[in-house]
Specification:
The structure is a single chain. The chain has a domain at 18-56. 55% of the residues lie in helices and 0% in strands. It contains three helices and no strands. 0% of the residues are buried. The mean pLDDT is 88.
């Protein structure tokens, strides 16, 4: 079986203000994070997975479940 490639070819780009940039830079420096791309990717994916896990579909709505 041939393993499917996981080469990253898609790009996301976003802007931050100077205060946000400084906050990110301080965090990276404090925790000695050198691979910024990997850190951003893992942080974003972790957040998404956590939210998706909390928002899983249910058979009943929230009010019915609280009864």
């Amino acid at each position: 079986m041939k393993k499917e490639s996981s080469t990253r070819v898609e790009r996301y780009s976003f802007l931050v203000n100077p205060d946000e940039k400084q906050m990110i830079e301080n965090y990276l420096r404090k925790y000695k994070i050198r691979n910024r791309s990997r850190w951003m990717r893992e942080t974003l994916i972790t957040f998404i997975i956590k939210n998706l896990d909390q928002d899983y579909p249910t058979l009943f709505d929230e009010q019915e479940m609280r009864r």
